[in-house]
């Protein structure tokens, strides 16, 4: 008996929309968010409408967008955890990680944009 194939999400199939998602979320945060909060209902609806207007082959819903938000936030938290520890590929004298670029690409994509998007929204280090 064969196992059913796992359904691939929109952002996995069309990864070029991840950057659009991040930019649209950041625009809404810049307009509406108080420090330490997430997107509000109006902002989520705006992001949903704007992304749906960019393409006509898949209707994105709030749950799918929120899942992508949570996934990116978790990626960002992992990255923040990596840069806040020593060892494991981190060179304290140089202040850099000595992993090859392929490793970084697998750890996180769009790390600069995610830092701007999630900074102040997540507890890291002793507060995680």
What does this protein structure show overall?
- The chain has 128 residues and is mainly alpha-helical.
- The protein is 56% helix and 3% strand.
- It has a two-stranded antiparallel sheet.
- The protein is globular and about 50 Å long.
- The model has no long low-confidence stretch (mean pLDDT 79).
- Residues 25-106 form the Myb/SANT-like domain.
- This is Myb/SANT-like domain-containing protein.
Number of domains: 1
H-E string: HHHHEEHH
Largest beta sheet, briefly? Answer: 2 strands, antiparallel
Helix content: 55-70%
Q: Can you give the mean pLDDT?
A: 79
Strand content: under 5%
Number of strands: 2
Distance between the termini: 43 Å
Keywords:
56% helix
List the helices and strands and how they pair.
Elements: H1 10-13, H2 16-32, H3 41-54, H4 62-83, E1 90-91, E2 96-97, H5 101-107, H6 111-118
Antiparallel strand pairs: 1-2
Helix pairs in contact: 2-3, 2-6, 4-6
């Amino acid at each position: 008996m064969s196992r059913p194939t796992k359904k691939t999400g929109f952002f996995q199939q069309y990864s070029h929309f991840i950057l659009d998602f991040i930019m649209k979320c950041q625009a809404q945060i810049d307009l509406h968010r108080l420090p330490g909060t997430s997107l509000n209902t109006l902002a989520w609806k705006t992001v949903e409408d704007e992304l749906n207007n960019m393409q006509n082959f898949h209707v994105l819903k709030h749950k799918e967008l929120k899942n992508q938000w949570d996934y990116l936030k978790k990626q960002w938290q992992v990255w923040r955890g990596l840069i806040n520890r020593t060892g494991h590929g981190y060179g304290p004298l140089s202040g850099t990680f000595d992993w090859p670029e392929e490793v970084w690409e697998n750890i996180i994509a769009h790390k600069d944009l995610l830092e701007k998007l999630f900074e102040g929204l997540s507890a890291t280090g002793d507060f995680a």
